[in-house]
Design brief:
- This protein has one domain: Rossmann fold.
- 39% of the residues lie in helices and 23% in strands.
- The strands form 3 sheets. It has a 7-stranded mixed beta sheet with strand order 8-7-6-9-10-13-12, sandwiched between helices. Strands 2-3-4-11 form a 4-stranded antiparallel beta sheet, with no helix packed on it. Strands 1-5 form a two-stranded antiparallel ribbon.
- A hairpin with a 2-residue loop joins strand 2 and strand 3.
- Helix 3 packs across helix 4.
- The longest helix is centred in the N-terminal third of the chain and has 22 residues.
- It is globular.
- Bound molecules: zinc ion.
- The site of zinc ion has 8 residues, from loops.
Length: 316
């Protein structure tokens, strides 16, 4: 079943882009870039001013809407549930420590609504949005009378200063304009409300861009063996794998983006991998997560080797 999900993801990664745009840096607004590498025929650049890494040029909004309208298919619900449930349960437990009482949640890119289900069971009033019609249908059916809306987050009209918590689980790096998404979230949060964002950690995967310089058949075979489970499509050296991922964030660059949209970072978590599968897989996950925590402590937070991380930030 896991293999089926990966195959499904690989199919989607074969999406061919027809229209692209070049925009200034989403982090600082300047247009001063250096190219780092190229993946799947698309250049990946770093901003010389704020170090934010992005794909440039990247697909237009219209292209992204067409793609995300069909990225989740009816029938894949249980596969996705198994792939994400352990991590979402951990999120729900963590967030419970930040909120003495349940409030009102908006989950952006809610998919089939699994996180909404978990939070509703904890007493929260839940709302979600997703670009996939199949996912929104599923979530609406399971969560009535919760509000689950179809469309791009920034296109939908949200009541100002309404929500206590807005979550972006693995969403921000898929968007054409993460800054606009955070600005929309800021307006929709009540003062003191919390935004929670999880993204893959660029720092760890940048090692692959270094290794690419030493490309050789044995190294390639080794990396292919290690990365065969990640769903990476074309090259074992791929980090972002555009066009599905358009931005690469570190703790620093995501922290800057949140700060410059008015948020104050309150916590950062090393999220490790999704703990699932056999006891052996879970042991590997826990060991790698522990190792990343140790390196982080030893380097006083200067070197973060977590596979992905979450940042919580408050609207001030
Ligand atoms: Zn910049």
């Amino acid at each position: 079943m896991e293999g089926e999900l990966k195959q499904n993801m690989l199919e989607h990664r074969r999406w061919m882009i027809q229209e692209t745009i070049r925009t200034p840096c989403n982090g600082c607004g300047h247009a001063d870039f250096r190219q780092i590498t190229e993946e799947n025929g698309l250049p990946i650049v770093a901003c010389r001013r704020c170090a934010l890494v992005s794909v440039r040029p990247r697909p237009t909004e219209a292209e992204l809407k067409r793609f995300y309208a069909q990225y989740l298919e009816s029938g894949a619900e249980q596969l996705w549930r198994r792939a994400t449930e352990a991590m979402l349960q951990r999120d729900a437990r963590r967030l419970a420590r930040c909120f003495p009482a349940a409030g009102e949640l908006l989950d952006v890119g809610c998919g089939f609504g699994f996180f909404l289900e978990l939070m509703r069971a904890r007493g929260w009033r839940v709302n979600g949005c997703d670009a996939s019609a199949a996912a929104v249908d599923h979530a609406r059916n399971r969560l009535q009378p919760a509000s689950v809306r179809l469309g791009a987050f920034h296109d939908l009209d949200w009541p100002p200063a309404r929500f206590d918590l807005i979550t972006f689980w693995y969403v921000l790096h898929h968007l054409a304009d993460p800054r606009r998404a955070l600005e929309t979230a800021y307006a929709a949060l009540r003062p003191g409300g919390l935004v929670a964002v999880r993204v893959p950690n660029l720092t760890l995967f940048q090692l692959l861009w270094l290794l690419k310089r030493f490309d050789s058949p044995p190294l390639r075979r080794l990396l292919e063996a290690i990365r065969k489970d990640t769903g990476s499509s074309n090259s074992p050296y791929n980090v972002l794998d555009p066009p599905v991922h358009l931005f690469g964030f570190t703790r620093t660059t995501l922290g800057h983006l949140l700060g410059s949209t008015g948020f104050q970072v309150t916590a950062v978590f090393n999220d490790g991998m999704v703990a699932r599968g056999s006891w052996f897989n879970r042991l590997i996950d826990q060991s790698l997560t522990g190792l990343a925590d140790l390196v982080l402590a030893l380097t006083r937070s200067r070197l973060d080797l977590s596979i992905c991380f979450s940042i919580y930030a408050r609207k001030i």
